[in-house]
Amino acid sequence: MIKIAIANQKGGVGKTTTAINIADALVRCGYRVLFVDMDPQCNSTSSYQAQIEDTYTIYDLMNEKCNTRDAIQQAQLGDIIAGDPHLPEDESKFLSKIGGFEILRNALSEVENDYDYVIMDTPPNLGIFMVNALVAATGVIMPLRAEKYAIDGLARLMETIKDVQKHGNPELVIYGVLMTAYDVRNLLDKEIWQILPETGVNYGFPVFKTPVRICQAVKEAQAENASLYDMSPNCNAAIDYVNIVKELLGED
Ligand SMILES: Nc1ncnc2c1ncn2[C@@H]1O[C@H](COP(=O)(O)OP(=O)(O)O)[C@@H](O)[C@H]1O
Ligand SMILES: [Mg+2]
Question: Which listed ligand is nearest to 83 at the C-alpha?
């Protein structure tokens, strides 16, 4: 089972968009995919139109109140363990618990043979839930949006990833940085895209060959809780995400 964490401690960089469109594309390729929403903002859970109330969620799973299969819902876009706004309330409890970083990894081992891929959306911080996702993951993708301090943020994220590789998950593969909402007419976008390969060499991350272009259809699909591939299959972002998945699968 390949488990991919979509991580960047900055908000608004395209984590949720990337997680959903990669998961959706993999489902359409015929793979068995489980989505895990570790972000208490639950944006992915909303897009999946999954339940949060009156059902087991990531909160129950992380608190070991249910089995992994009990927490899985069959939703609009596929199988998902829903996020939960209550998750961060107990953050300090996990920090003081032996094995507090490994709860998600252990939980996912229960469904090791049920899925080909697990896609994990993560919160916009470097806290215990992001680290749980990185410890559980076999690989990580780092979405990046052109912003003033984007590269500084990446350096900090790479430190966390290297800590996780050193202390809990030596096999964690860095698939790379994925530039999102790329606007070719914007100077900062062009500058960051140009320096990314060299920055990657310095910090130890590859860069996805395809940036995901900025595209209004992404917002429209999100507003409708619809699949981008159904709503606008020929839009720039849909084409780019399909190419990203091909790159992931080694088919490019
Ligand atoms: N390729 C894109 N084109 C246009 N808008 C995008 C694109 N990718 C993301 N966005 C928009 O940017 C905002 C932040 O994206 P989101 O995936 O929610 O980021 P994060 O999960 O990192 O906070 C959302 O409003 C989303 O619709
Ligand atoms: Mg998000």
Answer: 2
Tell the residue number behind the tokens 């043979």, with chain if given: 113
* Ligand nearest to the Cα of 143, by number: 1
For residue 180, give every residue at least 6 positions away whose Cβ sits within 8 Å of its Cβ, in sequence order, or none.
Answer: 13, 14, 17, 18, 143, 144, 145, 211, 212
Helix (H, G, I), strand (E, B), or coil: what is residue 235?
coil
Task: Report the predicted TM-score, pTM, of the whole model to 2 decimal places.
Answer: 0.97
Digit-coded pLDDT (tens) for 78-104: 999 999 999 999 788 888 888 999 999
Closest CA to 145 of 4, 11, 1, 24: 11
- Sheet harboring 117-121: ordered strands across? 72-75, 78-81, 33-37, 117-121, 2-6, 139-144, 173-179
Tell me the CA–centroid distance for residue 100 and ligand 1, in Å.
30
Asked if residue 186 lies in contact with residue 156, where contact means CB atoms within 8 angstroms, the answer is no
Report DSSP letters for 144-170, one per residue: E---TTHHHHHHHHHHHHHHHHHHT-T
Asked whether the beta carbons of 211 and 247 are under 8 A apart, the reply is no
Nearest to 193 by CA among 145, 157, 148: 145
Q: HSE on the CB side for 112, CA within 13 Å? A: 6
Reported CATH class of domain 2-249: alpha beta
What is the CB < 6 Å shell around ligand 1? Answer: 11-17, 43, 124, 180-181, 212, 214-215, 218-219, 222, 237
* Ramachandran angles phi, psi of 20, nearest 5°: -65, -45
pLDDT for 28-69, tens place per residue? 999 999 999 999 999 999 999 999 999 999 999 999 999 999
pLDDT digit string, tens, across residues 188-233: 999 999 999 999 999 999 999 999 999 999 999 999 999 999 999 9
What atom in ligand 1 is closest to the CA of residue 11?
23
